[in-house]
Amino acid sequence: MAKVKTNAIRILDSKKIAYEVLTYDNQDGKIDGVSVAAKIGRDPSEVYKTLVAEGASKSIYVYVIPVGAELDLKKAAKAAGEKNVEMIPVKDILKWTGYIRGGCSPIGMKKEYKTFLDDSCIELESMVVSAGKIGVQIVINPKLLINLTKAETVDVRK
What we know:
The protein has 158 residues and is an alpha/beta fold. It is built from five helices and eight strands. It starts with 6 loop residues before the first helix and ends with a strand.
Protein backbone atom coordinates (compact mmCIF):
# COMPACT_ATOMS: atom_id res chain seq x y z
CA MET A 1 0.00 0.00 0.00
CA ALA A 2 1.19 3.46 -0.83
CA LYS A 3 1.85 6.13 1.78
CA VAL A 4 0.75 8.81 -0.67
CA LYS A 5 -2.94 8.59 -1.59
CA THR A 6 -3.98 10.30 -4.79
CA ASN A 7 -7.30 9.84 -6.53
CA ALA A 8 -5.57 7.57 -9.08
CA ILE A 9 -4.06 5.41 -6.33
CA ARG A 10 -7.41 5.17 -4.51
CA ILE A 11 -9.06 3.98 -7.74
CA LEU A 12 -6.34 1.35 -8.33
CA ASP A 13 -6.69 0.14 -4.73
CA SER A 14 -10.50 -0.03 -4.93
CA LYS A 15 -10.33 -2.10 -8.11
CA LYS A 16 -7.50 -4.27 -6.71
CA ILE A 17 -5.25 -3.45 -9.68
CA ALA A 18 -1.55 -4.17 -9.20
CA TYR A 19 0.76 -1.14 -9.32
CA GLU A 20 3.89 0.26 -7.72
CA VAL A 21 4.44 3.84 -6.54
CA LEU A 22 7.64 5.71 -7.33
CA THR A 23 8.40 9.12 -5.86
CA TYR A 24 10.96 11.71 -6.84
CA ASP A 25 12.22 15.02 -5.53
CA ASN A 26 10.78 17.94 -7.45
CA GLN A 27 12.35 20.77 -5.45
CA ASP A 28 14.57 21.65 -8.42
CA GLY A 29 11.48 22.37 -10.53
CA LYS A 30 12.45 19.78 -13.15
CA ILE A 31 9.13 18.03 -13.66
CA ASP A 32 9.26 17.43 -17.40
CA GLY A 33 8.92 13.79 -18.34
CA VAL A 34 12.52 13.20 -19.42
CA SER A 35 13.82 14.67 -16.14
CA VAL A 36 11.34 12.55 -14.18
CA ALA A 37 12.47 9.40 -16.02
CA ALA A 38 16.08 10.14 -15.02
CA LYS A 39 15.08 10.83 -11.40
CA ILE A 40 13.22 7.51 -11.06
CA GLY A 41 15.91 5.58 -12.94
CA ARG A 42 13.69 4.50 -15.81
CA ASP A 43 14.23 4.53 -19.55
CA PRO A 44 12.22 7.44 -21.04
CA SER A 45 10.58 4.93 -23.43
CA GLU A 46 8.83 3.40 -20.37
CA VAL A 47 7.66 6.71 -18.90
CA TYR A 48 4.51 8.27 -20.35
CA LYS A 49 3.01 11.72 -20.12
CA THR A 50 -0.70 12.52 -20.16
CA LEU A 51 -1.80 15.20 -22.60
CA VAL A 52 -5.27 16.70 -22.92
CA ALA A 53 -6.67 18.10 -26.17
CA GLU A 54 -9.94 19.51 -27.44
CA GLY A 55 -11.45 18.51 -30.74
CA ALA A 56 -13.26 20.68 -33.27
CA SER A 57 -16.49 19.28 -31.78
CA LYS A 58 -15.43 20.70 -28.37
CA SER A 59 -15.01 17.15 -26.99
CA ILE A 60 -12.04 16.56 -24.68
CA TYR A 61 -9.56 13.75 -25.41
CA VAL A 62 -6.70 12.27 -23.41
CA TYR A 63 -3.47 11.10 -25.06
CA VAL A 64 -0.82 9.11 -23.19
CA ILE A 65 2.52 9.11 -25.00
CA PRO A 66 6.21 8.48 -24.19
CA VAL A 67 7.79 11.46 -22.41
CA GLY A 68 10.41 11.92 -25.13
CA ALA A 69 7.81 12.01 -27.91
CA GLU A 70 5.63 14.78 -29.28
CA LEU A 71 1.92 14.39 -29.96
CA ASP A 72 1.11 14.38 -33.67
CA LEU A 73 -2.06 16.48 -33.78
CA LYS A 74 -3.09 15.11 -37.18
CA LYS A 75 -2.82 11.49 -35.98
CA ALA A 76 -4.53 12.48 -32.71
CA ALA A 77 -7.45 14.06 -34.59
CA LYS A 78 -7.79 11.05 -36.87
CA ALA A 79 -7.82 8.66 -33.88
CA ALA A 80 -10.57 10.74 -32.25
CA GLY A 81 -12.57 11.05 -35.47
CA GLU A 82 -12.18 14.82 -35.39
CA LYS A 83 -11.33 17.31 -38.13
CA ASN A 84 -8.62 18.64 -35.81
CA VAL A 85 -7.55 18.71 -32.17
CA GLU A 86 -5.62 21.31 -30.20
CA MET A 87 -3.90 21.04 -26.85
CA ILE A 88 -5.95 22.68 -24.12
CA PRO A 89 -4.28 25.71 -22.50
CA VAL A 90 -2.20 24.84 -19.40
CA LYS A 91 -4.44 27.12 -17.33
CA ASP A 92 -7.45 24.92 -18.19
CA ILE A 93 -5.92 21.53 -17.25
CA LEU A 94 -7.23 21.67 -13.67
CA LYS A 95 -10.72 22.73 -14.83
CA TRP A 96 -11.05 19.76 -17.22
CA THR A 97 -9.13 17.04 -15.39
CA GLY A 98 -8.90 17.89 -11.70
CA TYR A 99 -5.12 17.64 -12.03
CA ILE A 100 -2.35 20.20 -12.58
CA ARG A 101 0.39 20.35 -15.21
CA GLY A 102 3.13 17.90 -14.26
CA GLY A 103 0.73 15.86 -12.16
CA CYS A 104 -1.93 14.85 -14.66
CA SER A 105 -2.80 11.15 -14.45
CA PRO A 106 -4.84 9.28 -17.06
CA ILE A 107 -6.57 7.61 -14.09
CA GLY A 108 -9.28 9.36 -12.11
CA MET A 109 -9.95 12.55 -14.04
CA LYS A 110 -13.07 14.60 -13.23
CA LYS A 111 -14.88 12.91 -16.12
CA GLU A 112 -14.21 9.82 -18.20
CA TYR A 113 -12.78 11.16 -21.43
CA LYS A 114 -12.01 9.17 -24.57
CA THR A 115 -8.43 8.06 -23.96
CA PHE A 116 -5.74 7.02 -26.43
CA LEU A 117 -2.56 5.22 -25.34
CA ASP A 118 0.29 5.37 -27.78
CA ASP A 119 0.72 1.89 -29.25
CA SER A 120 4.40 1.84 -28.19
CA CYS A 121 3.19 0.73 -24.73
CA ILE A 122 1.99 -2.63 -26.05
CA GLU A 123 5.50 -4.13 -26.08
CA LEU A 124 6.20 -3.08 -22.48
CA GLU A 125 5.73 -5.24 -19.39
CA SER A 126 5.25 -2.11 -17.33
CA MET A 127 4.91 1.58 -17.98
CA VAL A 128 5.08 4.62 -15.74
CA VAL A 129 2.40 7.34 -15.59
CA SER A 130 1.68 10.17 -13.19
CA ALA A 131 -0.15 9.25 -10.01
CA GLY A 132 -1.94 12.60 -10.11
CA LYS A 133 0.52 14.58 -8.04
CA ILE A 134 3.88 16.12 -8.89
CA GLY A 135 6.58 13.88 -7.42
CA VAL A 136 4.52 10.68 -7.52
CA GLN A 137 4.44 8.14 -10.38
CA ILE A 138 2.65 4.81 -10.87
CA VAL A 139 4.23 1.74 -12.46
CA ILE A 140 1.49 -0.35 -14.08
CA ASN A 141 1.06 -3.06 -16.69
CA PRO A 142 -0.11 -1.37 -19.92
CA LYS A 143 -2.95 -3.89 -20.41
CA LEU A 144 -4.31 -3.06 -16.95
CA LEU A 145 -4.15 0.67 -17.73
CA ILE A 146 -5.86 0.14 -21.11
CA ASN A 147 -8.68 -1.81 -19.45
CA LEU A 148 -9.07 0.67 -16.59
CA THR A 149 -9.19 3.78 -18.79
CA LYS A 150 -11.04 2.03 -21.66
CA ALA A 151 -8.26 3.38 -23.86
CA GLU A 152 -7.63 2.67 -27.51
CA THR A 153 -4.04 2.00 -28.52
CA VAL A 154 -2.98 3.98 -31.56
CA ASP A 155 0.14 5.58 -32.99
CA VAL A 156 -0.19 9.27 -32.09
CA ARG A 157 3.53 10.22 -31.92
CA LYS A 158 5.35 12.46 -34.35
